[in-house]
């Protein structure tokens, strides 16, 4: 088993028309044993910028704390992504075993999403990004459900249908829908085993 799969996770971000959504599962496990059912994987950096982590839970929390220390003011998502990438690359010989997902609204309310590997190599996307142990089923669900300029609620269905196919993630979901004027947060009920 890979160290990235040790705690299990499902994390995705998807864009819509002048909006985005970021979602996660709620399970924290140690391999097949469930430890917690409401583990925090998505962090609000400010009203228009969110950071999610998959991978080793302790490394993800450490990386988040270092980013909070470095982030003193609101910044554009592209700038924040470059800062995260540089921080990860600094630790390339002893990396954080996590894969961040960054989602935000930039200039003119244009949605921005990207994911990175553990040494900071960015993968930019115009539709959706996924990471975690459920990433294979997340890719399939997102490719089947995504359409350009759609409403952001599709992400909830993609998440729930994907975590049902992965024994290392689950226990429902937590979704943030972000439009230029507000942030909506929803807790999803899902498989409880």
Automatic annotation (TrEMBL):
Q: Which superkingdom, per the lineage?
A: Eukaryota
Task: State the gene name recorded for this protein.
Answer: LOC109021791
Keyword Nucleus belongs to the record: yes
Gene Ontology cellular-component terms listed: cytoplasm; nucleus; proteasome core complex, beta-subunit complex
Subunit and interaction comment: Component of the 20S core complex of the 26S proteasome. The 26S proteasome is composed of a core protease (CP), known as the 20S proteasome, capped at one or both ends by the 19S regulatory particle (RP/PA700). The 20S proteasome core is composed of 28 subunits that are arranged in four stacked rings, resulting in a barrel-shaped structure. The two end rings are each formed by seven alpha subunits, and the two central rings are each formed by seven beta subunits. The catalytic chamber with the active sites is on the inside of the barrel.
Q: What name has this protein been given in UniProt? A: Proteasome subunit beta type-3-A-like
Role this protein plays = Non-catalytic component of the proteasome, a multicatalytic proteinase complex which is characterized by its ability to cleave peptides with Arg, Phe, Tyr, Leu, and Glu adjacent to the leaving group at neutral or slightly basic pH. The proteasome has an ATP-dependent proteolytic activity.
* Pfam families xrefs: Proteasome (PF00227)
Q: Where in the cell is it found?
A: Nucleus
Record's keyword terms, sorted: Cytoplasm, Nucleus, Proteasome
GO biological process terms held by the UniProt record: proteasome-mediated ubiquitin-dependent protein catabolic process; proteolysis involved in protein catabolic process
